[in-house]
């Protein structure tokens, strides 16, 4: 009997080691890939514009890369009930785009800034409100438990990144005013709560972009730009918008 228990403990230990190794490998590969798309100071020449940042939190669960999304509170004056990444407008006291993203994530879902391993800042994009939004990608621990600020967030849920590369739950609308390329939309059923969430617009596009880059996987649908060279596309859109200011 003792021998059997020892064997069982050994099997459990081996499984934990293998799972840890898989988790670290997935994370390391994603970090190495995403860092290649870090904009650094490439857009330092931009004029002073109303700015915002979002944090795209990544983590590994069950051998898969996931991201966290939030459902905005119904109490908010704008964007009430919409799905988005943690984030918001830049404050005068914020040091940079990363600072804004981390501060907002802390205020909205209780994520301590020192528990985020910032990987990169992706290409800035304009929101429908005219804000220049900087997407900041970072890794967090799978064990993180959100502490919601009810005045800003009504729910937090996790989505496998692979979900944003599949055709099954994806919908696209073309020819939308003010939108270059297709307007992406997803319907996700959260297995933890049973709730269905509509993920669309800028949030859907950023989730698709990060999913494709981190997983090195071409989406099953037309994303509207070259996934191998997204920088050129976003730079073109940015300059087009700036020319109209």
UniProtKB/TrEMBL annotation:
Fatty acyl-coenzyme A (CoA) diphosphatase that hydrolyzes fatty acyl-CoA to yield acyl-4'-phosphopantetheine and adenosine 3',5'-bisphosphate. Cleaves CoA, CoA esters and oxidized CoA with similar efficiencies. Preferentially hydrolyzes medium-chain acyl-CoAs and bile acid-CoAs. Has no activity toward NDP-sugars, CDP-alcohols, (deoxy)nucleoside 5'-triphosphates, nucleoside 5'-di or monophosphates, diadenosine polyphosphates, NAD, NADH, NADP, NADPH or thymidine-5'-monophospho-p-nitrophenyl ester. This is Peroxisomal coenzyme A diphosphatase NUDT7. Keywords: Hydrolase, Magnesium, Manganese, Metal-binding, Peroxisome, RNA-binding. The lineage of its organism: Eukaryota, Metazoa, Chordata, Craniata, Vertebrata. GO terms for molecular function: coenzyme A diphosphatase activity; magnesium ion binding; manganese ion binding; RNA binding. The keyword Cell membrane does not apply. Monomer. Residues 49-182 form the Nudix hydrolase domain.
